[in-house]
Amino acid sequence: MRYTNVHTVILDDSDKPEYLTMIDIFAATHDVQVVRRENHVGFKAGNLNNYLTGADYDYFVILDSDEIIPPRFIRRMLDYFASDQSIGIVQATHVATRNVTRFQQKFSLGVDSHWPVYQSVKNRYGFLSLLGHGAMVSKQAFDAAGGFPLMVAEDLCFSLAVREHGYTTVFAPDVTCQEEFPVDYLAFRKRHSKWTQGNMEFIRKNTRPIMTSRQLHWYEKLDIVLFTYALPLTAVFSVFVVINVVVLPMMHASFQFPLWMLIPTVAFLVAPMVNDVVFHWARMAHTKLLSYSGGSMMLYGSMYFTSLRSSLKSMFGNSVFLVTPKDSTAISFREALRSTRSELIFAGVLAVISLVFTRSVFPVFLLVLPAMVAPYLMVRHQPTRAELHERQRGKVLQAA
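The structure assignment produced for this chain is given below.
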């Protein structure tokens, strides 16, 4: 860092002896403070609050384990705070780096297109949120919000609390940080589940306060509803499927399924990658972009069951903060089948139900196919031994 008046702290919630030892050695070598707590209440939010509530600082920066910030990060972020006293959070942009595994190399294109487009638009016309890492927060905003809410989506909930107390979040497109894309299919699925549960918990607890808020503009409220409902929307979409595949046939409704009936399903599968296609259209070979789009459609389509299960779990139970794995191992096709058995059973049951009630798989074809492809996605893009070795080598060099 070119800014010297900083203090680095590792907020360690790990419990495995080997990691505790590694962290202690690293901290002693690099003169870094380590803070641990007796309990792990409140997930990441509780871990942050445990240190920040009584610490002495003016601003703090949140860094996840895969984060790399540029040397001018602190100086440039402070410029934003100096320009407007109402700013409470400054969120930097990100690019995906250290893409060693084939899964990362294939699907990390979405990171490079998401940040500069999506966040820039939200910065001007919507509700911009802290996104959990690569951001600077003022102590005044933290104290005003009463710390991070003890929820899975602590970044989104904190941003809302900060906004309610008159502080804003701004985007810094000229400060580029580096992050890693999930290392493999299982890591991606776990992150997707966490995001879905976090959004569902946010919806349950904050919908009424958002609608009645006098601080939020109407377009901010609309933006919050649109992007928070995006992942849990699978539960609503499932109602559409049940009506057309089960209810109407049971009522002896006599009609054939025209091609246009697949439009909602196609929209569900295509929506996540529209921005990626537009952004990369003039930046890369169209054959590569087509391969990415097709793979992404299958990847996000295979997440349907994960989204549905996570939405229902959060709706009728407690949301759980899931840590995205940073390591991967090579697996066999049999292991892939076992790891995706829930998706395969779901696809099979859905296909049978459709056959029984409509005498065709056509109404659910675009939901069944991605789920059936899940084992292939897992094996096809798993890291090779050479990739795993290179990834481990990179970690050692980075730590050194």
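Interim note for the steering committee: Strands lie at 9-11, 33-35, 59-62, 87-96, 135-138, 168-179. Residues 233-318+331-381 form one domain.
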